[in-house]
């Protein structure tokens, strides 16, 4: 960062380079000095200019951080954006679905019937609660068809044993979201 000071005549004089952090939070970015040109125009201060004034004419190689902080302008650095599709021309049926609804509750099924269905699906056919509700939703909340169809599909087995679940819950309470530490405890 370069500090500039105002002269008694109201002009701006180049100051000395500050070694502290930039007030806008960018380390080393925006190293700009103000010159006494009309209109307060700015031109960038460079170490090459300072080295020439001191008699050092050798070129210095730029470090990686100096290269990364350079503002890039020109055709090579422009993003290529696709043409805008007007809302009237968009076709929702052509969009990829990013989610699949597997359960939506309904008031048509009493809670006790729903609990009974889930119990049968779990105990007799090995479904978990989510899989059982998904089957019921697939059959549009028709309990009879869903119960008949439970035997036709093999549910995806749950890979976690009861012991694994307990270990995970204990590790999660102890370590929070540090999953690499949780993995060490569960193994």
UniProtKB/TrEMBL annotation:
<feature type="domain" description="SANT">
    <location>
        <begin position="155"/>
        <end position="187"/>
    </location>
</feature>
<dbReference type="InterPro" id="IPR009057">
    <property type="entry name" value="Homeodomain-like_sf"/>
</dbReference>
<feature type="region of interest" description="Disordered">
    <location>
        <begin position="1"/>
        <end position="67"/>
    </location>
</feature>
<feature type="domain" description="ELM2">
    <location>
        <begin position="69"/>
        <end position="154"/>
    </location>
</feature>
<dbReference type="InterPro" id="IPR017884">
    <property type="entry name" value="SANT_dom"/>
</dbReference>
<keyword id="KW-0539">Nucleus</keyword>
<keyword id="KW-0805">Transcription regulation</keyword>
<dbReference type="GO" id="GO:0005667">
    <property type="term" value="C:transcription regulator complex"/>
</dbReference>
<protein>
    <recommendedName>
        <fullName>ELM2 domain-containing protein</fullName>
    </recommendedName>
</protein>
<dbReference type="GO" id="GO:0003714">
    <property type="term" value="F:transcription corepressor activity"/>
</dbReference>
<feature type="compositionally biased region" description="Low complexity">
    <location>
        <begin position="29"/>
        <end position="44"/>
    </location>
</feature>
<dbReference type="GO" id="GO:0000118">
    <property type="term" value="C:histone deacetylase complex"/>
</dbReference>
<dbReference type="InterPro" id="IPR000949">
    <property type="entry name" value="ELM2_dom"/>
</dbReference>
<dbReference type="GO" id="GO:0006357">
    <property type="term" value="P:regulation of transcription by RNA polymerase II"/>
</dbReference>
<keyword id="KW-0804">Transcription</keyword>
<dbReference type="InterPro" id="IPR051066">
    <property type="entry name" value="Trans_reg/Corepressor"/>
</dbReference>
<dbReference type="Pfam" id="PF01448">
    <property type="entry name" value="ELM2"/>
</dbReference>
């Amino acid at each position: 960062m370069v500090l500039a000071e105002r002269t008694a005549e109201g002009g701006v004089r180049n100051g000395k380079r500050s070694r502290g952090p930039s007030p806008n939070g960018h380390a080393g970015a925006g190293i700009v000095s103000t010159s006494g040109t009309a209109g307060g125009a700015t031109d960038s201060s460079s170490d090459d200019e300072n080295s020439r004034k001191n008699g050092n004419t050798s070129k210095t190689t730029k470090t990686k951080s100096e290269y990364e902080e350079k503002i890039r302008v020109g055709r090579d650095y422009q993003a290529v954006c696709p043409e805008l599709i007007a809302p009237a021309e968009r076709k929702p049926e052509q969009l990829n679905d990013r989610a699949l609804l597997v359960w939506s509750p309904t008031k048509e099924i009493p809670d006790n019937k729903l609990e009974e269905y889930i119990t049968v699906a779990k105990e007799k056919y090995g479904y978990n609660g989510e899989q059982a509700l998904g089957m019921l939703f697939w059959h549009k909340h028709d309990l009879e068809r869903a119960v008949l169809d439970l035997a036709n599909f093999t549910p995806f087995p749950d890979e976690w044993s009861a012991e694994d679940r307990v270990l995970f819950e204990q590790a999660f309470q102890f370590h929070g979201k540090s999953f690499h530490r949780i993995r060490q405890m569960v193994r």
